[in-house]
Amino acid sequence: MYKIVEAGILAGNIWRMVVEAPRVAKRCLPGQFVIVKQEEHSERIPLTICDYDREKGTITIVFQPVGASTWKFARMKEGDAFMDFTGPLGVPSDLCTDPIEEVRRKKILFVAGGVGTAPVYPQAKWLHEHGIECDVIIGAKTKDLVILENEMREVANTYVTTDDGSYGRSGMVTKCIEDLVQEGHVYDHCVAIGPMIMMKFCALTTKKLGIPTVVSMNPIMVDGTGMCGACRLLVGGEVKFACVDGPEFDGHLVDFDAAMKRASLYKTQEGMAFLEAQEGDTHHGGCGQCGGE
Ligand code: NAD
Ligand code: FES
Question: In the list 138, 147, 213, 218, which could disulfide-bond 190, CB 3.0-4.6 Å?
Answer without folding.
Answer: 213
